[in-house]
Write a structure and sequence with these properties.
The protein has two domains: 143 residues, Medium-chain alcohol dehydrogenases, catalytic domain (Quinone Oxidoreductase, Chain A, domain 1, Alpha-Beta Complex); 143 residues, Rossmann fold (3-Layer(aba) Sandwich), CATH 3.40.50. It contains ten helices and 15 strands. With 325 residues, the protein is of the alpha/beta class. The longest helix is centred in the middle third of the chain and has 20 residues. Strand 1 and strand 2 form a beta hairpin. The strands form three sheets. Strands 3, 4, 5, 6, 7, 14 and 15 form a seven-stranded mixed beta sheet that branches. The protein binds NADP nicotinamide-adenine-dinucleotide phosphate. NADP nicotinamide-adenine-dinucleotide phosphate binds next to helix 1, helix 2, helix 3 and helix 8.
């Protein structure tokens, strides 16, 4: 089978396609044919050696996929060859024709979920649903989404709009904002050209937003914390800007704010039942009114370095996919 292989940490350019022996499922594992793999920001961090999980070199990158089970190892009774699944193996391996995954890290892909949505459902939609649930978002509240045109960002817009929230998308380009609005955002703020705080003040009549979802960190975190209404909730999902923010505790006290850390990867590792419950909630929203996958580009295995570089260069609106065949 063909797989992308990273032999030295540091850059997407270090990835090359290699011919490898077909995978044989080990006890507790499932082997699947990859139909589509989602490209996540975490893939880029892993390739650069800056992610919390550091597999030994050489390794096959790719943290999320939709595929078909082709073999099961000893002790696996829940899955059979032919099952259509989605999964997010914590050690990667999805930018390949085949992937081996611990059986508890995969989930059934229902028939109404196209491959290209299944390949981004666990991480993007799972994280979005998990975060908004932790915020106890309810209909009529206002949500500000940073990086709203990115993979997680679009999923958050999709879900928050279906939950009846008023959604303000914030992003760095007209194209990313157009995408967020196509997915249900009611307002758009370009934080590259406009100052965030006055824009939010004007959109909320000075009242502020109830929830901020931050995938960006840095300046967006600092500014958006000050856009929260009294009792507001800040959801810390990621730091794509590369700048880790610091929380000014006195400001939380003054406005009864909460800052919530969102680590869906940790839930994936520790509590598959909780992941399944979260995915079920997102799938119920999809069944009621289907999500349309926002595809920011389709790539072959040979083109994986290009896809990762586009993420690093902030060029992608929506989610890029790797299609191994
Ligand atoms: N906590 C969790 O469980 C969890 C789960 C999934 C993802 N994440 C994290 O969430 C973040 C988003 O992931 P994703 O896969 O949705 O990534 P993505 O599609 O690349 O989106 C990230 C967004 O961040 C913005 N950004 C700001 N500064 C950037 C910079 N210097 N370089 C690149 N992007 C920058 C970009 O939007 P603008 O250009 O519009 O600013 C981009 O669209 C990542 O930090 C990821 O690690 C966390």
């Amino acid at each position: 089978m063909r797989a992308t292989v990273l032999r030295a940490l540091g850059s997407p350019e270090n990835i090359a396609v290699e011919e490898r022996p077909g995978l044989i499922p080990q006890p507790g594992e499932v082997v699947a044919q990859v139909l589509a793999a989602g490209v996540n920001y975490a893939d880029l961090l892993m390739v650069m050696g800056r992610y919390q999980v550091k597999p030994p070199l050489p390794f096959v990158p790719g943290l999320e996929f939709c595929g078909i089970v082709t073999g099961v190892g000893a002790g696996v009774d829940r899955w059979r060859p032919g099952d259509r699944i989605m999964g997010a193996p914590l050690a990667g391996g999805c930018f390949a024709e085949q992937v081996a995954v611990p059986a508890q890290q995969i989930f059934r892909a229902p028939e109404n979920l196209p491959d290209e949505l299944g390949a981004q459902f666990v991480v993007a939609y799972g994280t979005a649903a998990f975060a908004l649930k932790r915020a106890q978002l309810h209909a009529g509240e206002t949500v500000l989404v940073g990086g709203a045109g990115g993979g997680v960002g679009v999923a958050v817009v999709d879900i928050a709009a279906r939950l009846g929230a008023r959604v303000i998308a914030a992003a760095s380009s007209a194209e990313k904002l157009r995408v967020a609005q196509a997915h249900g955002a009611h307002h758009a703020v370009n934080y590259r050209t406009d100052a965030l705080r006055p824009a939010i003040e004007s959109l909320t009549g000075g009242g502020g937003v109830n929830v901020v979802l931050d995938t960006v960190g840095g300046r967006f975190f600092d500014d958006s914390l000050r856009c929260l209404a009294r009792g507001g909730r800040m959801l810390v999902v990621g730091f794509a800007s590369g700048i880790l923010p610091r929380v000014p505790a006195e400001y939380l006290l003054l406005k009864n704010l909460s800052v919530l850390g969102i680590g869906f990867g940790g839930v994936l590792a520790a509590d598959p039942a909780a992941v399944q419950a979260t995915l079920d909630e997102a799938l119920a929203l999809h069944a009621a009114r289907p999500f349309t996958p926002e595809i920011g580009g389709r790539f072959t295995l040979e083109e994986v370095p290009k896809a990762l570089q586009r993420l690093a260069d902030r060029e992608v609106a929506g989610k890029q996919l790797v299609l191994p065949r």
